[in-house]
Known about the structure:
Elements: H1 2-9, H2 21-25, H3 32-52, H4 71-93, H5 97-116, H6 129-151
Helix pairs in contact: 3-5, 3-6, 4-5, 4-6, 5-6
Amino acid sequence: MDAARYALARVSVDAVIDLDIDLLTRQPNDNPVHYLQYAHTRLCAVQRKAREAGIDKGAPQDFDPCLLTHPRETVLLGMLAEFPQVVAGAATLREPHRGAHYLEALAATYHRFYDACRVLPRTGEAPDDRTRARLWLTEASRVVLRNGLRLLGVSAPERM
């Protein structure tokens, strides 16, 4: 159901829809809804591993974005800041595909950030302020992705 709902939401109402039933029923990364749900589960897993390791990211007001100086971090921060305008624009123009395309770009941006920046400390290393800032960045990404999927009527699983 999620795959069908998402497939319809990600295409402009002006476009011809060509549904690939085989693609919708598979779970590879070329299935857009699976890719987004996988990204959400990855975000949940990072938070879960941090809790299991006893890492406290502190209170939201302790988040210091000045600690996020890597180019991948700043790109992700910028993407997250766009979410309210994307939702407003999609609603105003009645074009839900704008939200779907944004979510796909956000997931890709998070994966690039995750590949370039260590979020959790290595075994034996103590978490520092940058670790906590990256955990907050991960949490913000999770919340935005979950909210975007829910707006489209698609589930955001915590495990797959």
